[in-house]
Fold histidine kinase.
Amino acid sequence: MQLKENWLTYCSRPTIFRRVIGTSMLLLTLALLALMGAERYDNQRNLYNQTASDLLTQLTGIGYELQQEGLEPPKKGAILAEQFEPGENLFTLCDQQLNSVFVSQAVRKRSIGDLCAHVKRSQSKWSTQAVELAPKRHYYVYPLTMETASGEMHLVILRDANKAQRELAARNSWITIKSLILLPVILLLLISGALWGMKPLNRLGLQLQEIIEGKRSRLGKPEATELVGITHALNDMLEQSEQRREIYQNAMKDLAHSLKTRLAAIQAILDDPNSNPEHCRSDMYDQLTQMDQLIQYQLRKAVMGRQGLSTEKVAISPIVQQLTNMLDKVYRDKRLNFIIEIDDAIQFPINKEDLMEFLGNLMDNASRFAITTVKIRVEQDAEQQLLLTVEDDGPGIEPALRQKVLGRGERADERHPGQGIGLAVCNELSHSYGGQLIIGDSSLGGAAITLKLPNSHHYVDRP
């Protein structure tokens, strides 16, 4: 059962696994077949040469037989051996045109065909393979060329190859058995090697699955050098995805925070029993227009980041006046006194929607904590940097908390409602334009929050 499950597991491996195993097995099988063929040929050649090892000795017996027939023997002979006595040698003598001149007694006795014609058909391409020259009788053919007094002659000698053929068949059978044993072993080793080699890739897949399931946030250190690049790329992509998700979340929080003040203004307009219907309709239209602009602005910021928003020179007075009219309705019960000290000639190098969001957050915070007075002033310092300050006469912000309240979700006073977003948004905006947000003490007795901004189009991208 376990073996069946393992086999099904192998069959269900990814395509890359099957391709590696299939291609490797194909190449190894072809290589093994080539080695088998080479070994078979080597065995065949060795037996051919082994059978011809005493061929020189046989020439003496052939010489005696030719002498008995009145033909000139080879010029060089050898010591006569018993197995090569005249009448026992298988040979044929051919002339220069490969026509039969003499056929030995043994060849005639065994009814072997014309050896000269056989050599002529083979076109001098001698083979180490045994040839069936008689029914169920195989022979090795050894063609020799020799010089005689009559000219060049061809001596074709035969050797019985039946015994060698049986030995060759046994050797070839052993080669086949070895191959049948070796192929499964190679396959198992190949699968084991492929599984071991793909282990880092499988672990990478498991880590990605854990990221999907929320069990981890980043890929671990890769186990293989080849995976370093892809691991770093995936981690970078995950980081960018988190940053993009954070941008969307912050944009939605900023939108909700910005709309809250507009909704409060609409509620105040609707609750005012003394409002003129015509003025009420106009004020409602203004607030709805601002809400629509805020939505479009936050959506652009979420999709493109601040790099996609253009910078421009914006007059601040109309925006301050518009926000003052809105906050005057929202905090109508406080009857706040808004002091505006702005030189109409001063313009801010900032996107209009960014300036609206920045001022809206600062003036809303100041109005919420102020007792009677909110002050907005704009000036230039000695270095020609623009200073936008919003002050109030409220409780202020303790020095120990001033850096803390610039983070998202951080609040200096838990007794007042809020999400701790406003100052964080202002801090992000100031940095995106190369500026600085400074929290200090106001001459009115409360907090003074200042935007220090270079009087240029200098811009720093923020994701």
User: Anything to note?
Assistant: The CA atoms of residues 376 and 390 lie 5 Å apart. Residues 241-453 form a domain with the Heat Shock Protein 90 fold (CATH 3.30.565.10). Confidence is low (pLDDT under 50) at residues 74-83, 412-419, 457-463.
